[in-house]
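Narrative summary of target 7.
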Amino acid sequence: GRLVRDKGGLYAVVPRGADAGAAPVDPYLVATKVAPDATLAYHAALQFWGKAYSVWQRFHFLTESSTRAFRFRGLEFAPVKVPAPLRGLPAADIQITEQRHGGGTVRVTTLERTLVDVLDAPAHAGGWEEIWRSLEMIEFFDLDAVVLYTSQLGSALTAARVGFFLDQHRETLMVEDSHLERLRELRPRQPRYLDTRRKPGKLVASWNLIVPDDVLGRTWAEVACESSATCHRSRRHEAPASLRRLRRHQSQGLANDLRR
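Modeled conformation, tokenized:
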């Protein structure tokens, strides 16, 4: 047959003439077809928008359904429960958008929501260096939308993290005092650690946030490359083989049609 079934219960149409055992499946379509409300989020959203510093083989998606993580073709699909304050709200009210992609449609968080989400749950985005480097690739945010979504989440620690990031990038992102003031109203009343592992750092009093030195100064430790920094960067950004095959097939017009 021309159908291949993944472990999430989906079927993908294999292009005519392609090997069913090797034909790539679009991971963004897979992730958003696993459940009716499944939405690309966190690092997967950054990667979808082309703003991830590193290419991952793990794709997080938000859902209110009881869905288990699974692996398929060397890729990992990991469900994350929708945060409690957002459950039951319409997608348009919590900054979820639908985008045409690969012959289908995917649901994905907007860049504004993604900024807040990765600061709210850094474990789903690779840690502070990956988050900072990824977000710094984005040239513009609707800051009113960022502040609104931060308030919807209702987390004082997240509000402080978002405020600190915007404060640190106020010139490049054209952050106004009014945006920062609205976030300061949401910050913790007592000092909190930026990192929940209580990594030591300096207190940024304006945000009641104890920030590690490397984040404060953006002095990230680079892994040494045997030949040069260029070598290290090219290795880090190289897509996994399954994604490289997918891109080749898509460039030839071989889009996947996913069906339950």
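The chain has a mean pLDDT of 83.
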